[in-house]
Amino acid sequence: MKKSIRYLGLAGVVLFINLAWAGSASPGDQSDIDAKVRHLLRKMTLEEKVGQMTQLTLSMVSSGADGNQEPQSFDEAKLEAALIQHHVGSILNVQSTGSAFSVEHWHAVIEHIQDLATNKTRLQIPVLYGIDAIHGATYTQGATLFPQALAMAATFNRNLVRKEGEITAREVKASGIPWNFYPVMDVGRQPLWPRLYETYGEDTYLATELGSAYIQGHQGVAPCLKHYVGYSDPWSGKDRTPAIITERLLRETFLPTFEAGVRAGAPTVMVNSSEIDGIPGHANHHLLTDILRGELGFKGFTVSDWEDIERLYTRDRVAATPKDAVRIAVMAGIDMSMVPSDYSFYDLLIELVKERAVPMSRIDEAVGRILRVKYEIGLFDHPYGDSRLASAKKEVGTQASATDNLNAAQEALTLLKNDNKTLPLSRKSKVLVMGPNADLLSALNGGWTITWQGNQEQLYPKDKKTVLAAIRETVGDGNVVYANDLDFALQRASRVDAIILCLGEKPYTETPGNIDDLTLDPSQLAMAARLEQTGKPVILVMIEGRPRVIRPIVDGAKAILMAYLPGMEGGRAIADVLFGDKNPSGKLPITYPRAPNALTLYDHTAMEESEGNVYNPEFPFGAGLSYTTFEYSDLAVDHEAITKGQGLKVSVKVTNTRKLYGQESVLLYLTDQVASIARPVKQLRGFDKIALSPGETKTVEFTLKPRDFSFINRKNRRVIEPGEFKVTAGPLSRSFRIE
Ligand code: BGC
Predict the structure, then answer these.
(1) Most buried residue among 168, 233, 605, 719 by CB atoms closer than 10 A?
(2) How many angstroms does the Cα of residue 307 sit away from the middle of ligand 1?
(3) Residue bearing the CA closest to ligand 1, atom 12
(4) Is the CATH number 3.40.50.1700 carried by domain 413-609?
(5) Which residues make Cβ contacts (< 8 Å) with residue 158, sequence separation at least 6?
């Protein structure tokens, strides 16, 4: 029987998440677990406690000079040093090179570690293994790798995101791993940021809803909300560079996603590697303790990001010594250190406690939280999880999961331009396929695929289709000309009906993905411009993790399909949309800028559009065409006036006006007309994805809750101010009052 763990969130809403990763974990309630934790804590030495707070990388216990050899094997002396001499409580790994582990190898790794931890250590506390399963089980061979989060956001479909959570957790669990460093709850407000694609886009409400849906689906493996908080808005756009976010804005834009994640029951939180207003995330007591614990009511444990405690000394210089860095971080509220490549944290924290610079009560608090999570997920009863199940392998990369993955990729694809109904192309058309991303699976997947950077094309599965391969399969080899150089393409252009040009970015994540200019690579722009001059219809397929500026080639293109990073089934999905096997229904979860320095987001204040200021993105948030058309009518509110604390029902009719089945994401925006601070011109407050047969009409209903009318005021408090409001859906608006 599985057990459910309850967490009480800030708003008092209780959700349930099943953390127990081993199917038969014995049910235990919180008081039972608390008693076990207290009992165990009483038996522990200082060294054993600090060991629980220490997380190492697998390389630290593996053989080979850099410990990252392929295939991975253990160095027994190093493993004993970690688990027996240093009592280490958690291990993770990141695969920089070399292939992902097979399910069997994962099982061997987990078994070996747990054998030692649960038989040879004094207290037999199992190790909590953690992994980055970012768009699926990244480091498990044959895993189902979904569209990256930004693409998932474009589906505006909670069910698909929930499904992704479900399948990812199942495959991580089948690998024997109980903990996933995901979901990313950062709101993607900075288009230059190389991790934009790991977010659910620029809107807080959308990210909150989808992040929560992911967690609901992610059963049986502990999720980790990251990166708390404000990491996603670096002023310069570079990864791990400062953000300038006032507390008011932090509460308005960046905290609600984490608040929802805590409410959904996530038991762990990873900390922001960067700094806000000059205060490094790992040294921010106000955020890590006052707000996360005091206000959000988080009961789980926090883990640092990679090497980030040490960086308080080596980089940020808020600590005068490495030891002081440890003191600052632990006292700020960090419970576990992803050290991960030495024993400095362990040694220094023991010294700090002996010197009374860190009180034992703080250690007990941190260790208590870590042990509680280990109990809650059933790790003590089932340290091996699924790693002893012969059937586990069958859970990974199933045909059913591939189908769900394909659905997600299809629903993500966002048609941004379609002049003269260029798309869909007839299956009889002859096409020229070109561009740097036409024949690469790595480009479709991006970072966190098989390896950290995702750029090892040779390691990708042979049975998945690139865009080129999928188009060939759809229209037959004879109808496809593939060109990898421009001269050849120009020679052949006269003989084809259309040119499909796959542009965008190569894989990256974190600092290797930093850029100085959001403009698309000039050689790609030149290639597109030259092909557009041929007079043949050019269809741009943008395969990219962030919206690279394409102004010079937009007007000359007949159609533009935004593919984001659509994952392993992305090639198939793109061919399906191009040739009409699937009607596109994605909508942009971000603003697509027209120029590199025009980065205003959709929920700006009126100032951005007045007195000479123009708001004119290439494609706005929410843009996305279909091969059919949808007409909106009868937008209605159930009250002209409501009182503070009351909700509002809004309904709108949507009709499919053409002879083609299609799906439509119906987006509901709210505008607060007058307030004590300047409010956004509009903000997303509801969305629902519907399917409509030709001629069919459906009524979509939204229930706005009091919180939907609220905002953070000058005193950093969430308030509802009475006055005039407006809801908008499609081209329609309705006003109402709060009295
Ligand atoms: C990233 C985290 C990740 C961690 C472990 C860090 O560099 O910022 O998102 O979970 O590495 O791989």
Answers:
(1) 168
(2) 10
(3) 94
(4) yes
(5) 209, 210, 213
Domain boundaries, the chain: 29-394, 413-609, 630-738
- Would you identify the CATH topology of the domain 630-738? Immunoglobulin-like (2.60.40)
Q: How many whole angstroms separate alpha carbon 351 and alpha carbon 452? A: 35
How confident is the model at residue 70, as a pLDDT? 67
**According to the model, what pLDDT value does residue 387 have?**
80
Catalytic option among 305, 335, 576, 672 = 305
Residue of 180, 159, 152, 176 lying closest to 168 (CA atoms): 180
| Rounded Cα distance, 210 and 589, in Å | 11
| CB contact set of 555 (below 8 Å; sequence gap of 6+) | none
Return the DSSP state at 98: S
- As a whole number of angstroms, the distance between CA 61 and CA 145 comes to 28
Find out if CATH 3.20.20.300 is the number for domain 29-394.
Answer: yes
**Ligand 1 centre from 137 Cα, in Å?**
15
Dist. CA 708–CA 321, nearest whole Å = 46
From residue 333, alpha-carbon distances to 283, 327, 328 in Å are: 8, 10, 9
* Residue 75 is among the residues annotated as catalytic for this protein: no
Pocket of ligand 1 (CB under 6 A): 94, 132, 181, 226, 273, 305-306, 510
Q: Give the ligand 1 atom nearest the CA of 273.
A: 8
**Residue 227 Cα to ligand 1 middle (Å):** 9
Which residues of the chain carry a pLDDT beneath 50? 1-16, 23-27
